[in-house]
Amino acid sequence: MLERERELIAAAARELSANGLVLGTAGNVSARHGDLVAITRTGAELASVDGADVTVVGLPDGQHLHGAFPASSELALHLGIYRRFDAGAIVHTHAPVATALACVVDEVPVVHYQQLLLGGSIRVAPYATFGSDELAELTVAALDGRRAALMSGHGAIVFDGDLPGAVGGACLLEWICTVFWRARAIGSPRTLSEVQQAEARAALAASGEGVRVEIGESA
Ligand SMILES: [Zn+2]
């Protein structure tokens, strides 16, 4: 079931690992196909996963449909996003700079126009135990009107219409967090005004600019 999609999800997870956005088993990737969600399994080493490490569950409740292993422990978070937003793929990481900021700030303001590709300022969802329904609810709320959020004491989450967009968004989020961190280290970062943001959004829409990481299928 969804064999090619499962291979692509595994390839996306390996790509995130190769880019240093996930370490060991700390992260998960999913994609939606109609009423089906394919998601990396719990406990998978993301640097070396393959299609057999991707589990298929059903929407809206996450019933196990295919795969030898249980789904990721953050299944409730992924399902909550698919139920609430028009998402085609989701990436959750413990990327180091995003996670560091999530331990300190309540929000990353718009300091760079490319941040608007993720919806604007990046909210930090309050802390809750990993894998809990409470964490899913808090994080979904932080994503309102956005494609990315940070999770206090935990990590980062990004969704997009497809896997290349979600992986690209995860890379962009880590880059934005790095820029904000360095800017804050040397002074008070200037933020884009509402007018500047509106003009940049229009320019981005006109240019079709986006950050996508195309996913290879070979291990
Ligand atoms: Zn996590």
Give your account of this protein's structure:
The chain is α+β, with helices and mostly antiparallel strands. It has helices at residues 3-18, 75-84, 96-102, 133-142, 163-186, 194-207; strands at residues 27-33, 36-40, 54-58, 64-66, 89-93, 107-108, 122-125, 148-151, 155-160. It has a nine-stranded mixed β-sheet with strand order 4-3-2-1-5-9-8-7-6, with helices on both faces. Strand 1 (27-33) and strand 2 form a beta hairpin. Helix 1 runs parallel beside helix 5 (163-186). The protein binds zinc ion. Zinc ion (ZN) binds at residues 26, 74, 92, 94, 130, 154-155.
β-strand amount: 15-25%
Major sheet characteristics: 9 strands, mixed
Order of helices and strands: HEEEEHEHEEHEEHH
Distance between the termini: 19 Å
List all distinct small molecules, including ions and cofactors, that are bound in this structure. Answer: zinc ion
How would you sum up the global shape?
globular
